[in-house]
Amino acid sequence: MRRRHFEILRPVCPVCRPDSGEPSPLEIGQVLAEESEHIVEGLLRCGRDTCQSEFPIFDGVPVIMPGLRVFVSTQLQQILGRDDLSEALESVIGDCCGPGTPFDSTRQQLSSYAWDHYADLDPDEPAGGPRPGSAVRVLERGLELAGELPDGPLIDLGCSVGRTAFALAERTGRTVLGVDVNFAMLRIAAGVLRRGVARYPRRRIGLVYDRRELAADLPGADRVDFWACDAAALPFADGTFAAAAALNLIDSAHAPAEVLKSMAAALGDGGKGILTCPYDWSSAATPVESWIGGHSQRGPDRGAAEPVLRKLLTAGAHPASIEGLEVLAEQEGVPWRVRMHERSVVEYAAHLVIAGRTE
Fold first, then answer.
1. How far apart are CA 132 and CA 160, in angstroms?
2. CA count, 13 A, side-chain hemisphere, 98
3. Domain count of the fold of the chain
């Protein structure tokens, strides 16, 4: 965690805020390990006497969650995961665990997302295959549609392994914070930030992976940090950010409408949200009743997602409309490629929406 980001963004306690209604600033309670301006291990603490909740910093990533016990217990393997084993021993673990296990699922996720974010830096990436960088290209299109942004820091919601946060900093010159709830992905992002190296397992086929370790000296990295935060319960005072990116996040969130509400609150006057979504719903990530479209094809919207999202972003158009946001621009069918393994690529047609914060 960069001290500079902590001082600029002034995070507040996500535990006592819903009860008190007033944000209580977090304090740096204890520094256990520090490298340059990065606190690598430590504790943040709520300053309110009646709360005193603590939030740990693991491997340079602060975990500022209202449900800390659940987060740590469900992601214990990712938090305690080692990245110093040889490729051979890591492959033995993968073979022993087998397909469908948490270890295997984590490696597949890291392979797909880190390939898209960093494979353009890989001199050994096979020529003639699918082109990485979909996330950054979609972000760039979103910035074009968004136009001028007000002054202030930016937040990348669901930043994954981090390349879009770096791209935001490079293209805008702003302070950027990337947040996600997947600690294994945040560890890759933090590794790029602190060491200038993108290290990830690239899936060949089945349980066969090749370790990639790529130099990643990215422009704007000095203005970026990565925290573990729930996009539906952001630990910041209202109006903290000038813009928010939420790229292919909504259909991966437990409560998409709450993510939109949280984003609206975090944006200052004139702030803008860059949203993309392929509406690839799964009950494993989002309860069906929380989906934005994708069901109830007998209703007025015939199960389509786009009109429901527009209504949510239009005051009074839906019972759950998000106060303070309106649709400024949109584009259909934005391509987003996800590499599964060397013989499989999934291509999504994402819906890109620019939502503006009304005063």
1. 15
2. 0
3. 2
248 and 332, same domain (yes or no): yes
Q: Where are the alpha helices (DSSP H) in the chain?
A: 3-9, 17-20, 68-74, 76-80, 87-97, 102-118, 134-146, 163-172, 183-195, 256-266, 306-312
Within a 13 Å sphere around the CA of 340, how many CA atoms are in the beta-carbon half? Answer: 7
If you write DSSP's letter for every residue of 77-109 in order, what string do you get? HHHH--S-S-HHHHHHHHHHH-TTSHHHHHHHH
| 67 located within any domain | no
Q: pLDDT tens, 305-321?
A: 999 999 999 887 777 78
Contact (CB, 8 A) for 208 and 198: no
State the Cα angle at 67 between 57 and 184, rounded to 5°. Answer: 50
Tell me which residue range forms the domain holding 200. 80-357
Do 103 and 133 sit in the same domain of this protein? yes
Chain-centroid distance of CA 305 in Å reads 22
Mean pLDDT of 53-66: 97
pLDDT in tens, 171-206: 999 999 999 999 999 999 999 999 999 999 999 999
**Phi-psi domain of 59 (left: phi exceeds 0; alpha: psi -120 through 50; beta: other):** left
**186 in Cβ contact with 156 (< 8 Å):** no
- DSSP assignment letter at 50: T
